[in-house]
Amino acid sequence: MNYKPYERGFTLVELILVIVILGALTAAALPRFVNLRADAKKASINGLAASMRDAVVLVQMKWLVVGNKSASTVMLANGTTVGVGTGSGPNGGVPLASTTGIDRAAGISTTQYTCNNSPVRTCTLVGGPATCAVIYNRNTGMVTTITTGC
């Protein structure tokens, strides 16, 4: 085939059409990338909740193994001392809702999370809303999450 020099390349209409299509694809994908911050906050709160749940089980099992129902602290394998409830009630061996209790057991960082005091301890992201939180009940050892406001 013989091509003439002016028949090679793209026309202005073709170039504009490609630009319009790329713009539409970008506009459709942009909202998904904008929401990554909320996803990261939810993941952080869910990770904290999992850490707290595991810490409750670990500390209570260690307390039960030692067998001293009047012990108010549990020494973990890494040397961390965790304050716990005493007696044979439902909160026996459960970490206290304090900086010396669940915070130590779960390794909660004060630079990343803000927590209030017992008997129900609520932890939120530093500077984050109260509707994006982990709630720890020292009386039962239950950990719940609220991620509606992340």
Descriptive keywords:
single chain; 150 residues; alpha+beta; two-stranded antiparallel sheet; 6 strands
Structure description:
- The chain is α+β, with helices and mostly antiparallel strands and 150 residues long.
- It has a domain at 49-146.
- Helices cover 39% and strands 17% of the residues.
- The chain contains three helices and six strands; from the N terminus they run ααββαββββ.
- The protein has helices at 12-34, 36-66, 102-106, and strands spanning 73-75, 81-83, 113-115, 120-125, 133-137, 142-146.
- A four-stranded antiparallel beta sheet has the order 3-4-5-6, covered by helices on one side. Strands 1-2 form a two-stranded antiparallel ribbon.
- The protein is rod-shaped.
Helix/strand class: alpha+beta
Low-confidence stretches at least 5 residues in length (pLDDT < 50)? none
Task: Please report the distance between the alpha carbons of the first and last residues.
Answer: 63 Å
Mean pLDDT: 88
Q: How many individual helices?
A: 3
User: Strand arrangement, largest sheet?
Assistant: 3-4-5-6
- The 3D shape can be described as rod-shaped
Number of distinct beta strands: 6
Element order, helices and strands? HHEEHEEEE
Biggest sheet descriptor: 4 strands, antiparallel
What share of the residues lie within helices? Answer: 25-40%
What percentage of amino acids are in beta strands?
15-25%
Question: Rounded to an integer, what's the Rg over CA atoms?
Answer: 27 Å
